[in-house]
Specification:
This protein is of the alpha+beta class and 85 residues long. It has 2 helices and 4 strands, in the order E-H-E-E-H-E.
Amino acid sequence: MSEDGSEVRHVLVLPDRDAAEEAAEALVDRLGLSEEPQIVREALAGEDDAEDAQWLLIVEDAEDQLDARELDEFAAEWDGWREEP
């Protein structure tokens, strides 16, 4: 939990479903997460094509212990980025 008592979630934005699925597994191994991040498809505004989507990894960080810089570097390895809260 953060200092204000709310749960911390990190959102990693990845370019496609394959990258999101592979990254979710790799993130569990690398950071020793107790559960795999949630994968969510986010359609881009105004786009109907399934190809025009971003894939999000929602990483729960109840103890607020994950390093944002490490998550930034991890997402970049998959051609993605971490959204700022």
